[in-house]
């Protein structure tokens, strides 16, 4: 049967026939059955940076044909497409790309931020951007992300035929591949270009309600290894490397995959860079990813008691290290303030979505994003503990099981309590600079001006993953909590005009 999954490493014969290749050695079984010589398999590196010009061109032509057919049949266009055609002229101003870049830099990059939450990726983008050459692959890659963000706030979808972001994305992939084929040293701009292309995939996935396979993460992990073999002599380069590592760790955590990194191998990079609480949490999450992946592989049909005991003991020890991070490494001012009552929570916020009668107010949207990463990491560890206990056949009344479920419930409540701080009273699309949005606040202290811009830009993006992690956790939660989270996910779709392809 036809295989339409993520990009394949399979041999040319299987890809031409559009069937799944088993990638057996020395040749695949399909070629063996046909009694032909198997041409071999593509490397993961080539898959991540494959040439997508033909695919993009074919997709645009297919969408144009569908639109033309709908016009001939008199079918009504969707609201998003009507807006797209009414607002975008056939000839765009020459400074549109620069406008998109300025919008992205001012709305997403140059926001005031606590030094403790800096992880390297977006924090060091601007200094590298100001130093690049016109031929750098970072230019089209960043332009793709910037155009995609601007289109999103203009209520345009990145998959429609008039989208400019897709064109820049294809150019970015081609420019990155060309830079790598020239066998030059991997510079900061090349590594950031790979990260920007991955960010584009993630943003498109968010805006279209689809799952991203993040193909560039595998390529980025390979680039990190190459970059580390070269001298890293300045703090900007070190922060770029740490930002790349953070991006990869975030993806493997979401996909239950083991991390390709060892925290002990990064001491040469972190030696000259201030280890912020966020970077230290990244170190811990490398181990969390490995534990989560190992526990996910425990097969109930094959008893592996020794392995299960080893995973269980390692998980409990790692959970204690995460607790120590929260109590000793994270600054005291990061701890959320619990607020309740009409003097702190406007009625509009309460009507839009309030779990229980209280919510949390944080120092900034980036702090609450970091604390939610901490919460979801500990949830993964508790799920690993439960998986090991199940595998070992320990009774459901065991104290360790009860404790793990209580911790998951408490962490899930913390994630739910952060929703009003992320979204305020928004239920429909609004402007990114809309200061009429209501947010919860500490009694007697008004909402800081920087929170309006930061929450609009990052609120939904930072909140989606924690909500998904809690919603899909394979364990019981309080009655009605999953339904409430599902309602907030629908609210996110309304706020950001997310519509599946």
UniProtKB/TrEMBL annotation:
The keyword DNA repair does not apply. Residues 10-38 form the Zn(2)-C6 fungal-type domain. SUPFAM superfamilies: Zn2/Cys6 DNA-binding domain. Keywords: Nucleus. Pfam families: Zn_clus. GO terms for molecular function: DNA-binding transcription factor activity, RNA polymerase II-specific; zinc ion binding. PANTHER family: ZN(II)2CYS6 TRANSCRIPTION FACTOR (EUROFUNG)-RELATED-RELATED. This is Zn(2)-C6 fungal-type domain-containing protein. It comes from Lophium mytilinum. The lineage of its organism: Eukaryota, Fungi, Dikarya, Ascomycota, Pezizomycotina.
């Amino acid at each position: 049967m036809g295989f339409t999954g993520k990009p394949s490493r399979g041999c040319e014969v299987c890809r031409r026939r559009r069937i799944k290749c088993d990638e057996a050695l020395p040749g695949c079984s399909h070629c063996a059955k046909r009694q032909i010589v198997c041409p071999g398999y593509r490397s993961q590196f080539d898959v991540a940076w494959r040439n997508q010009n033909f695919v993009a061109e074919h997709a645009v032509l297919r969408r144009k044909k569908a639109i033309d057919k709908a016009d001939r049949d008199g079918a009504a266009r969707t609201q998003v497409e009507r807006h797209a055609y009414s607002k975008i002229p056939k000839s765009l101003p020459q400074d549109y790309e620069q406008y998109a870049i300025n919008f992205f830099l001012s709305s997403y990059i140059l926001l005031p931020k606590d030094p403790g939450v800096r992880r390297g990726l977006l924090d060091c983008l601007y200094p590298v951007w100001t130093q690049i050459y016109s031929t750098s692959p970072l230019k089209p890659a960043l332009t793709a992300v910037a155009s995609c963000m601007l289109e999103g706030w203009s209520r345009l979808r990145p998959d429609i035929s008039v989208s400019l972001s897709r064109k820049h994305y294809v150019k970015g992939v081609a420019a990155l591949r060309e830079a790598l084929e020239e066998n030059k040293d991997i510079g900061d701009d090349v590594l950031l270009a790979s990260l920007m292309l991955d960010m584009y995939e993630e943003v498109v996935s968010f805006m279209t309600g689809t799952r991203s396979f993040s193909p560039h993460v595998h390529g980025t992990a390979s680039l990190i290894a190459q970059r580390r073999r070269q001298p890293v002599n300045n703090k900007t380069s070190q922060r770029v490397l740490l930002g790349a590592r953070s991006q990869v760790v975030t993806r493997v955590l979401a996909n239950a995959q083991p991390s390709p990194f060892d925290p002990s191998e990064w001491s040469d990079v972190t030696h000259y860079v201030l280890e912020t609480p966020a970077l230290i949490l990244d170190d811990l999450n490398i181990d969390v990813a490995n534990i989560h992946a190992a526990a996910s592989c425990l097969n109930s049909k094959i008893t592996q008691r020794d392995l299960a005991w080893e995973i269980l003991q390692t998980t409990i020890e790692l959970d204690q290290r995460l607790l120590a991070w929260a109590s000793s490494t994270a600054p005291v001012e990061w701890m959320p303030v619990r607020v309740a009552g009409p003097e702190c929570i406007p009625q509009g916020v309460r009507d839009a979505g309030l779990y229980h009668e209280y919510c949390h107010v944080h120092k900034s949207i980036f702090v609450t994003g970091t604390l939610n990463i901490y919460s979801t990491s500990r949830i993964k560890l508790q799920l690993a503990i439960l998986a090991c206990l199940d595998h070992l056949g320990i009774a459901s009344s065991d104290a360790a099981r009860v404790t793990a479920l209580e911790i998951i419930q408490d962490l899930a409540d913390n994630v739910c309590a952060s929703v009003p701080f992320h979204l305020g009273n928004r239920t429909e699309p609004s402007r990114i600079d809309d200061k009429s949005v209501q947010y919860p606040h500490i009694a007697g202290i008004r909402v800081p001006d920087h929170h309006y811009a930061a929450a609009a830009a990052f609120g939904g993006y930072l909140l989606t993953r924690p909500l998904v992690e809690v919603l899909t956790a394979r364990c019981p939660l309080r009655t009605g909590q999953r339904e409430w989270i599902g309602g907030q996910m629908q609210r996110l779709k309304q706020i950001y005009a997310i519509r599946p392809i």
